[in-house]
Amino acid sequence: MTTGIKNTNDIIIFISEIAKAFKEANRDGSINLLDTLKAIQVLPSLAAAIKDADEIKDELMDLNGEEKDLLLMGLKKAIYDLVDAFT
What we know:
By secondary structure, the chain is mainly alpha-helical. The chain has helices at residues 6-25, 33-38, 43-51, 56-61, 65-86.
C-alpha cells in the first residue's frame, strides 16, 4: 500500500510560496511593515505543510516511480523559486 506524497508535497509548496512572497515583498529593494502583511498569504500553505508533517518520513520511504517524478518536479520548481527570490 502506498502512502502517497500529499504531506511531502505540501512542504515543497510552502517552500515555493515563501520564496515567492519574499520576492514580492523585496521587489522595491527593501522590506517594510506592509510587505510583511503580504507574507500572511503563505499562512494557508504553512498550515498545510505542518499539519501532518510527521507522516513525511513514511511517505518518503514508500515512494513509487511516479511519486518520485512528481516530487522531483516540485523540488525543481521550489529551488528555482528560492534562487529567483534571492538573486
